[in-house]
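Whiteboard transcription, Tuesday session. T.W. wrote the structure tokens on the left side:
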């Protein structure tokens, strides 16, 4: 081989080596270290460490740890069962509905260990007697209070035009009673046409109820006496009528004056139905058929009350009366309506104030 050929071959080999080195240098993960400058064509390829691939596999591990973290919130619901388990009944129900029972059951048992909560459950029998007395106290007494006063507003006609006021008072001891009723016109009517009504009823108190003895009627501008009614039970005779013109009539067992009737009604059976009584107004003495209605609710100036309506069965061409007794007010008459001969409302009395009391041992 000629010297020229050798030079040409050496040049080609050098160029080929340089080209390969350039290509190899571009491959990822390899680096080239050159020897000393004295050997320009001497080179070696060294594989370097991977460029941090290990971290990527570690990244999911924290995610797995975070996925386990939600188990901690599940422990949080444990406190609610404790609160619910505080009352014994809830403690029994909570384990059935709550899957996290192991720790809660222990706490429930520790709370229920002094199983005295069930003993308070037996306390209701001990407390059941208490509601019974309360119910008995809530039930009004049939007999009216020993003393009291009812004030009424008096209205005229169905339009309820106020024309006056009325006051009923009573006093009852173990043997006798006295009931009074005083009404008078007020306002302009009282100024231009004053008028008064006064009734007094007196009698005895017996096991059967109130037994009237005397009834007095006063009416007019000055309240002069108009009529009286005297009950002679020994002879079974009633003397009644206007002054100077007395009349007589036989007495029956259920004979009363108008005022006494109001306070005798609570002593009668007040179940729906009819009852027969004889009543005197001082000037008249008639047989009344009273119809007792079902209990109802009535709005009055003294409040909304349960009442029992009692009406006189009306006869054509005769006056009649209607009464409402309030069980919550000792069966006192809280509304009274007088009907005229045509059955229209003539006068109405609505209770506006009720005051009751008892008589002291010394009679005061």
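and on the right, the sequence the group agreed on:
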């Amino acid at each position: 081989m000629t010297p020229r050929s050798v030079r040409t071959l050496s040049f080609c080999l050098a160029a080929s080596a340089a080209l390969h080195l350039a290509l190899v240098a571009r491959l990822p993960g390899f680096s080239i270290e050159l020897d000393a400058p004295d050997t320009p064509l001497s080179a070696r390829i060294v594989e370097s460490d991977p460029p941090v691939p290990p971290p990527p596999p570690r990244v999911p591990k924290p995610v797995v740890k975070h996925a386990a973290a939600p188990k901690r919130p599940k422990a949080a619901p444990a406190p609610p069962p404790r609160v619910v388990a505080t009352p014994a009944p809830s403690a029994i129900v909570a384990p059935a509905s709550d899957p996290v029972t192991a720790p809660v059951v222990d706490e429930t048992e520790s709370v229920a260990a002094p199983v005295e909560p069930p003993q308070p459950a037996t306390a209701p029998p001990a407390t059941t007697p208490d509601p019974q007395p309360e119910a008995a106290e809530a039930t009004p007494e049939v007999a009216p209070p020993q003393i009291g006063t009812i004030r009424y507003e008096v209205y005229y006609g169905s339009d309820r035009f106020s024309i006056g006021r009325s006051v009923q008072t009573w006093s009852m001891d173990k043997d006798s009673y006295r009931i009074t009723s005083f009404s008078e016109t007020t306002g302009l009517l009282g100024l231009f046409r004053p008028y008064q009504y006064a009734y007094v009823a007196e009698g005895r108190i017996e096991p059967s109820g109130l037994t009237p003895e005397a009834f007095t009627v006063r009416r007019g501008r000055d309240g002069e006496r108009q009529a009286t009614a005297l009950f002679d039970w020994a002879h079974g005779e009633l003397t009644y009528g206007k002054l100077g013109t007395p009349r007589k009539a036989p007495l029956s067992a259920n004979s009363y004056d108008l005022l006494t009737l109001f306070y005798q009604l609570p002593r009668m059976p007040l179940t729906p139905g009819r009852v027969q009584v004889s009543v005197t107004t001082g000037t008249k003495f008639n047989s009344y058929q009273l119809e007792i209605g079902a209990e109802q609710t009535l709005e009055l100036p003294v409040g909304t009350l349960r009442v029992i309506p009692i009406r006189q069965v009306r006869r054509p061409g005769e006056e009649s009366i209607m009464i409402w007794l309030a069980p919550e007010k000792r069966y006192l008459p809280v509304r009274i309506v007088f009907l005229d001969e045509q059955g229209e409302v003539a006068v109405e009395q609505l209770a506006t104030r009720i005051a009751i009391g008892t008589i002291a041992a010394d009679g005061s």
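Someone added at the bottom: Residues 27-39, 45-50, 59-141 have pLDDT under 50 and may be disordered.
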